[in-house]
Amino acid sequence: MDTFACNEELLINITPQETRLAVVENGMLQELHIERKSNRGLVGNIYQAKVSRVVPSMQAAFVDIGLEKAAFLHVSDLVITEEHSTIPTARYSDYPDISKLLYQDKQMVVQVMKDPLGSKGARLTAHITLPSRYLVLLPDSNHVGVSQRIDDVEERSRLIDLVEPLAKNMNVGFIVRTAAESVNEEALLRDARFLERLWNKVKKRKDYAKTGGVLYEDLDLATRAIRDLVHDGIEKIRIDSRENYKRLKEFVDNLVPEASKKLEYYTGERPLFDLYNMEEEIHKALDRTVELKSGGHIVIDQTEAMTTIDVNTGAFVGNKNQEETIFKTNLEAAAALARQLRLRNLGGIIIVDFIDMQEEEHKRQVLRILEKAIAKDQAKSHISNVSSLGLVQMSRQRTRESLEHVLCEPCSMCQGRGSVKTAQTICYEVFREVLRAARAYEARQIMVLASQNVVDRLLDEEADNVVELEEFINKTISFQVESLYFQEQYDVVPV
């Protein structure tokens, strides 16, 4: 399957408070990444760490990397030396006793694999990796591998022949990334030297770092997206911040020169996300129910243990028999739920309850459509066959919080049964609405009517941002508490 057959764009909306990045395919939002200045993700960061507690019964250890919660390190994520190696097999029971490898207060270098999620601490690995545009450096290995997404045998062989001498000279390993397909030797050499310099910096910092010290911090969201998400199918990369456009232009020219012509500074009057109707799509992505064009719908319920997806025919009755109606609804639902998994960033165990189908061929076709749609997703997934109960079990790699967990919080009105957007999220929505009002109306002042929690935050934690916004629009912003407004409700009124 040609993953790059559709037209894709990256939209990057940057404000002082947060960066939002949308992956758009044929005008439709497929992925949304959000990074807030006050709460940047930790995945990819490398720390000087100290073992807090070894738990032999779990074959794991809790590790101090300077966070409030201790991070988790499993024996399978340790670098096993020849002295202790009795494997390597995939079975956890074959790993050596972790108490022979780690002890309390042991100092070590670790990398974050997964951000803290809910009540769980960060997940760590001792297998350090440093990514660049075309290569991933493996400092503790001499292995050279090629991304499975490059399926041309001759191309895989060519890349290995080019990279193996580099790895041998540097005494390290490399993974060749998908973006390296068809690139020349010079580009690979440039990437390898860049990663070698980067790793040398990390080693120097290790010599004087204390527990919890950051030895390497991954790139910010916008720069990381250009490094990891740009491919031949990306037609445009639009960014609405002049300052960050200049910064990214320099990064692109140095590391991803082939994408230089695709990078654009958006100067339109309408906000970038409004131009593509992204705000409405984001709101829809927080709903439980997703309507299908046929009249059917899917219902998505996210819990800490798993995500369940229920498919219903709804108002769709079809033109033929009931089996045909069910089959068409399931086909449409399979494509729709694959998009929703990416958009909502749902991970872990996922159970899909398709409408019961009698014909085996229909079941196979629905699974093929699901697998084809999932193939576009960069997160690793595994899909099982339809069970005897008519359920499809699947798993999807989870490295960061879901969209709902980023934008929402448990609802105090319903005692945690649902969720509402946080006061911080509403404040940022208010800022965007104030910008729209300032551009659309000739008014001296903008009045914001909102709930007590939102106004309190605007006048306290967000006060500096309010001042910056007033200076930017050259208008005064005033606030009024509306006691009957719930947290998500607000009005912006030009005065």
Write down how many β-strands occur, each being a DSSP E stretch of 2 or more residues. 26
Computed Rg: 25 Å
Main sheet makeup? 6 strands, antiparallel
Decide which structural class fits the backbone.
alpha+beta
Question: Kindly state the mean pLDDT as a whole number?
Answer: 89
- Report strand %: 25-35%
Question: What features would you highlight for this structure?
Answer:
495 residues, globular, single chain, alpha+beta, six-stranded mixed beta sheet
SSE map:
Elements: E1 8-14, E2 18-25, E3 28-36, E4 46-55, E5 60-64, E6 71-74, E7 107-114, E8 123-125, E9 130-131, E10 135-138, E11 144-146, H1 153-170, E12 173-176, H2 185-206, E13 214-216, H3 221-229, E14 234-239, H4 242-255, E15 263-265, H5 272-275, H6 278-284, E16 289-291, E17 297-302, E18 306-312, H7 322-344, E19 348-353, H8 360-374, E20 381-386, E21 391-396, H9 403-407, E22 408-410, E23 419-421, H10 423-440, E24 445-450, H11 452-459, H12 463-473, E25 476-481, E26 490-494
Parallel strand pairs: 1-14, 11-12, 14-15, 18-19, 24-25
Antiparallel strand pairs: 1-2, 2-3, 4-5, 4-7, 4-13, 5-6, 7-8, 9-10, 10-12, 16-17, 17-18, 19-21, 20-21, 22-23, 24-26
